[in-house]
């Protein structure tokens, strides 16, 4: 079942690269008492993800912060090593985006955003979406009909909706 506006997002332990290697991040703690933007995408270093989706949130960071967003989080079904390198290569790290790896895809599946496209080599990946969660409750949700498109889920669209 896909999440909807009004649903409470489940907690999960995501992965980031820490000083000593991969470390867990409690997603529920990140959402507790805060307004966060979460955007999901099919994969690090993939075409539209690198050329459109992440850049749209880099461009929108100041406007989102001005609208009361405490943190912008990118979730992808990738390992923390790849997410860390991608954050540096795209400028997401410098812009202040939090890049979290849902390494086994469990959270992505739990919110109904998983898909598989074997011809593209994408197995158990994330659909392209963006959402706003206030204290863990979804208040805005934008789901693209195709993972190869980034319009509804772009940072600029979300700014206009908040």
TrEMBL record:
Catalytically driven reaction(s): a hydroperoxide + 2 glutathione = an alcohol + glutathione disulfide + H2O
Principal EC category: oxidoreductase
Keyword Oxidoreductase in annotation: yes
Pfam family, one: Redoxin
GO biological-process terms attached to the record: cell redox homeostasis; cellular response to oxidative stress; hydrogen peroxide catabolic process
EC identifiers of the protein: 1.11.1.27
Any one GO molecular-function label of the UniProt entry: thioredoxin peroxidase activity
Residue span(s) of domain Thioredoxin: 3-162
GO terms under cellular component: cytoplasm
Active site: 49
InterPro entries membership: PRX5-like, Redoxin, Thioredoxin-like_sf, Thioredoxin_domain
Keywords: Antioxidant, Oxidoreductase, Peroxidase, Redox-active center
Family statement drawn from the similarity comment of this UniProt entry: Belongs to the peroxiredoxin family. Prx5 subfamily.
Annotated function: Thiol-specific peroxidase that catalyzes the reduction of hydrogen peroxide and organic hydroperoxides to water and alcohols, respectively. Plays a role in cell protection against oxidative stress by detoxifying peroxides.
Name the UniProt record assigns to this protein: Glutathione-dependent peroxiredoxin
């Amino acid at each position: 079942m896909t999440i909807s506006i009004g649903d409470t997002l489940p907690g999960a332990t995501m992965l980031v690269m820490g000083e000593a290697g991969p470390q867990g991040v409690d997603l529920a703690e990140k959402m507790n008492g805060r307004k966060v933007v979460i955007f999901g995408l099919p994969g690090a270093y993939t075409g539209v993800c690198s050329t459109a989706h992440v850049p749209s949130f880099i461009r929108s960071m100041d406007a989102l912060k001005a609208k009361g967003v405490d943190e912008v989080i990118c979730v992808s079904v990738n390992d923390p090593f790849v997410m860390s390198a991608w954050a540096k290569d795209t400028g997401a790290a410098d812009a202040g985006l939090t890049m979290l790896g849902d390494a086994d895809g469990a959270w992505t599946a739990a919110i109904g955003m998983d898909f598989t496209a074997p011809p593209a080599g994408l197995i158990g990946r994330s659909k392209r979406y963006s959402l706003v969660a206030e204290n863990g409750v979804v208040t805005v949700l934008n789901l693209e009909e195709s993972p190869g498109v980034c319009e509804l889920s772009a940072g600029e669209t979300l700014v206009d909706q908040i």
